[in-house]
Amino acid sequence: MMPETAPLSAAEYAATRAMLEWQIELGADEAMLDAPISRYAPVEAAPEAAPEVAPKAPAAEALAAPVPVDPVAEATALAAAAPDLAALAEAMAGFERCELKRGARNFVFADGNPAARVLILGEAPGREEDLEGRPFVGPAGQLLDRMLAAIGLSRNTPDAAAAVYITNVLPWRPPANRDPEPEEIAMFRPFVARHVELVSPDLVVLMGNPACLAGLGQRGILRLRGRWAEAFGRPALPMTHPAYLLRNPAAKREAWADLLALRARLDG
Fold first, then answer.
1. Pure H helices in 38-181
2. How confident is the model at residue 252 (pLDDT cuts 50, 70, 90)?
3. Residue 23, domain member (yes or no)
4. Is residue 40 part of a domain?
């Protein structure tokens, strides 16, 4: 309901009509808004709306990022799948998770008679072993051969009862003949365990701290040596490494006692 307004007087009516006629003459012949707009007033610019930002799509690199691989799990799977020594050597040689492979000359797997009753586990190849591709061929290896000969054992005999089989924890030479790192030992332990399983020796000799760490989970060869333990499910005798004996000739007496203990165990 429209509000009531007071009637215009004759003078007001005439003035209002005159104004409308004047606006019609100017071209304003149609009412557009309820209130007039001043064209001379300053116009405030409306604030610009912030541009919409589309959510960033995941980077292609992130989508394609490889899933981290556990080297120990991969080594375990490869070792378990090896049905024999040849397949195990191939799996180890093709294992790409160890950086030592990039700096070594040759892959060093094993030496001796696989039917031997004694498996000797060393640390890692040195310079001579890296050049020749066989374990224990340098000065320490020559001393080892003399030690074994003193109790009637040899790596070169076809007689399994008098033979030894020799391998290392690592198949690749560490730079500057440094000791193997615990991570490297853990990485190759599944291969070592499978190696021992395939050879199936009566006894295992652990020569040096890395071999003890792989077989017993312990270090401290001077404390462990000469004390029978169990490694890889077999009787194991920790012994000082021949390289240590070359640096410390006085320790050869204890090494001789360990060799005699090994001989006595073989003789039953």
1. 60-63, 71-80, 85-93, 100-103, 127-132, 139-149
2. very high
3. no
4. no
Domain tally, the chain? 1
Residue-range definition of the domain harbouring residue 122: 71-267
Q: What does the alpha-carbon distance between residue 83 and residue 128 come to, in Å, rounded to a whole number? A: 30
Neighbours of 205 (CB within 10 A): 24
CA distance 207 to 205: 6
> Tens of pLDDT along 153-189?
999 999 999 999 999 999 999 999 999 999 999 999 9
CA-based nearest residue to 144, from 46, 211, 48 = 211
- Give this prediction's pTM: 0.75
The answer as to whether 182 is a domain residue is yes
Asked whether residue 35 is domain-assigned, the answer is no
Amino acid type, 12: E
CATH code where residue 109 lies:
3.40.470.10
Q: C-alpha distances in angstroms, 181 versus 29, 45, 187, 267?
A: 97, 71, 10, 36
Pair of tokens at residue 144: 């080892």
